[in-house]
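Thread: Newbie trying to understand structure tokens

Hi all, I'm a second-year student working on a class project, and my supervisor (Dr. K.) asked me to get a predicted structure for one chain before our next meeting. I've only ever worked with sequences, so writing a 3D structure as a token string is new to me. If someone could post the tokens and maybe explain what I'm looking at, I'd be very grateful. Here's the chain:
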Amino acid sequence: MFSVPAFILAAALTLQPADTSVVEITFDVGAEDGAVMAALFDSQAAYDGGGAPVGAAMIDVAGGERVARFEGLPPGDYALRAFHDVNGDGQMNTNPFGMPTEPFAFSNNAVGNMGPASWDRARFTVSGETRQTITLR
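---
Reply by user tm_fold:
Sure, no problem. This is what the structure looks like when written as tokens:
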């Protein structure tokens, strides 16, 4: 007969993962070419360019994909930035004045004023499974 010592069993029970959440974003695109590049942030500082995203995805629009799924996230506030790389060059193209020439979007379909949407407009609370549909324009 096999028995597990109580201290090993107790240690195993404490290693269970904490509650995690999922963010699923469906992208409404105007072109059927290229890919959508998306980055998910968990703080205003990171969202504003001061840190790395907690998740990133490349959605193959030309291959029929439209959904990005970020799993294993702790509950909290998040914001997403995305652009549609229509020409497939791996970057968001801009005109000589720095204005984007490829479609882009933010979570909550937030819009910016003379720049990207603010954290406050793009931020959404995640707990459990959270879904959004975002239109790239």
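A couple of things are worth pointing out once you decode it. Helices lie at 6-14, 44-50, 119-122. DSSP finds three helices and eight strands in the chain. Feel free to ask follow-ups in this thread.
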